[in-house]
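request received
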Amino acid sequence: MAVKKNNTIKLKFDSARNLAPAPESKSAAKINPRYDLFINGKFEKPQSKKYFSTINPATEEKLSEVAEAGQQDVNNAVKAARVAYDKTWKKMPGKERAKYIYRIARMIQERAREFSVIETLDGGKPIRESRDFDVPTAANHFFYYAGWADKLEYAFPNRNTLPLGVAGQIIPWNFPLLMAAWKIAPALATGNTVVLKPAETTPLTAMKLAEIIQEADLPPGVVNIITGAGATGAAIVNHPDINKIAFTGSTDVGKIIQRAIAGTNKKATLELGGKAANIIFDDAPIDQAVEGVINGIFFNQGHVCCAGSRLYVQESVFKTVVQKLKDRMETLIVGDPLDKNTDIGAINSRAQLDVINNYLKIGLKEGAEMYQASCSIPGKGFFVRPTIFTNVAQSNRIAQEEIFGPVLAIQSFRTDDEVIEKANNTPFGLSAGVWTDKGSKIFNMTTKLRAGVVWANTFNKFDPTSPFGGYKESGYGREGGLHGLSAYVNVV
Amino acid sequence: MINTKAIPDFSVSPHVDQVGIEERASRFTKRSIKNETKLNGLLLALNMIDLTTLEGKDTDGKVKQLCYKARHLHDAYPGLPTVAAVCVYPSMVKVAKTALGDSGIKVAAVATAFPSGQAPRDVKIRDTKFAIDQGADEIDMVISRGKFHMGEYDFVFDEIAAIKEACGDARLKVILETGELVTYDKVRKASDIAMYAGADFIKTSTGKISPAATMPVTLVMLEAIRDFYYKTGKRIAMKPAGGISKAKLALHYLVMLNEVLGEEWMNNQWFRFGASSLANDILMQLMKQKTGLYQSPDYFSLD
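response:
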């Protein structure tokens, strides 16, 4: 007989979770014991003489150590970028620039397996995601912008475009290689040079990308990749010879950057936090909507700025949706990120794990009802069970603040107007999702939701041709697509 | 018996999003099935097969050979399970019943003017009763797709209920012929009608129409079974048929079953594969697991 809990029929999924191990081989991944800074086409020891470790969050074992760039290192990197900009890159015809960008794209494809394994080792995300999403999408971004390099006159008809100069780019730890691609590809295509800093917990794929850039014979200094933590990022932001800042990360740091560049003529694009509303109407394809909710909040352990972390369900289908969601959560496999069957891997760092666990406590204290999948989690490494909260109010912190983990806050609603009001009632505005079988309702919602991306009957879909960016405290500027070019040019 | 008041309005069966269902179905194929999980899966799949011959040229001899195969899948591998059932036309039920003896293998008969279903109801009922009289344990009926497309859902419902009554104790499999229904919404609606009308199994296809079973279509039906179970607490079995001829694909189906309906469905009481050539491919994989080497198809009997 089915196990009955609260008079609700539950299905049994123990055997679905307990598959024989299917680990991806680590042999494809060559990781050096130490990585220096990639400046002016060469790997150079840091002037700071300092290094820091990067670990595998699934095992807490050290993977490698990377240089910590100090002020002098940042100066060197910016100088190399400036010289490369003035002497070669800005003068190079677009079709020549395109060749280099295509080459990078192809080399990422050729070494896709190595990139996937390292991304998973360093960041904790499931190999299925790094293999099927991160790495191929990163290659696609380079391919896409390579195509634009010699067609800028068509992107901006009857106008001339000039590159901005040296772009300082600071990227987060949730999609390390992909974010590097989002930043570097459009900058190169439009004739800018780059100083890029990956996040301190996930520097390895960026250093691998540096190896590729070196092998691709990109002129020295066009792309410089330097590692470090907040201080290194601040040194980039404050450097007087930087023309443009592109930042993806937390809203707090975004505000600091905005203050720092006030009064300068640095341009900026900021892609910050989010607390996306995923909205299910009663006429929605319920099973597919549930799948979209799962994908929306548990993709990449919920470390996604556009994660669908607030779920609004119309009251007449509320019970059904929650029941199905709970059963679906039971089939999620949590554990070794390198196992090809893993759905949810490791939380990126101990600091982030503490943040998430703290929000779980806050949720309980606020009186919300917590449900976690009954799966076991590994004793070592940073893991958390997929979690949903019901009995949540709009005034709860778990419904207002970005948790950046596999934690979903569910609320009910009655009418279209009510849900639009609730969905927009947040300082963020990065993304939203609408689930309904009715086309006219979709268009009504998309025009009224104040979010940069609105998905209809799907969630977390990305494409290089589609612009991405936020409203309100989720930042400004767009990345991807035609819009992504404007962020790197002066149109005259 | 189900209270008629509990029967839902079939014109408002849940909608299915085509992109979403196909994406979800393809996710199951990403599971990497290895070692003991693979071995158990292969043995289970073998045990879920309805070994089938449905041809105009079927003879007593052919059916007897098939029944022998059903009992002795591959004697070079001791301890193998048998298939679940042998599936034949009503005229062959007696031959199959005798040939299978006390093996425990069921005899399933396709009835109701299979495969088109284009016959009056009394003919269909007589066809069914004949198969039952001959000793069939299970009846595979086809729905009237023409009437379904005309929107005459009551007709389809009543016909299934009438055949169910004619079945007596035999379990009834209702073939939707999804290749003729075409859209996922219609597959979902037909599944709901069949289950509420008394089906013990819902089955995708006759095997005579292309496309036959696909993973997304099967997923739509499994989700319908899950919703029916949530509502009524009653389990319905599933049978995809046609087009599943490789062991790997069969394992993908089992992953899907396991993740949609759970382990209580993971046996031949609640799931079957309608297939003729699947068994040999599974046997080949099993021998590979056992010996480490692939053997030529010539080492596996063709019946």
